[in-house]
Protein: Quinol monooxygenase YgiN
Organism: Chryseobacterium shigense
Amino acid sequence: MNLHVIALFKFNENYLMDAVELFQSLVKETRKEEGCLQYDLIEDKDNKGTFFMVELWESVDHHNRHNGQDHLLDFRKDAAKMLESSVEVYKGFKIY
């Protein structure tokens, strides 16, 4: 069963260009992963510095493997100092 994930990020406005660079690398590498069906970065149109990642994984196991990948671990480490608040992550299965 496919796993849908939405991750919400709120970056300090002083770091927006740096954040976008980090995201570009993360997206590029993640899209190469086995089981990654969708991995898209969206910027909120009304809230500068607010981004959300829309993810679709072939399975929970594929997503779990993603969580241990070096490119994601590096992103988390580098982004931590730029975030205004904790990342919110929502995971679920399509109902309809």
Observations:
- The chain has one domain: 3-93.
- DSSP finds three helices and four strands in the chain.
- The first helix runs from residue 16 to 30.
- The domain at 3-93 is CATH 3.30.70.100 (Alpha-Beta Plaits).
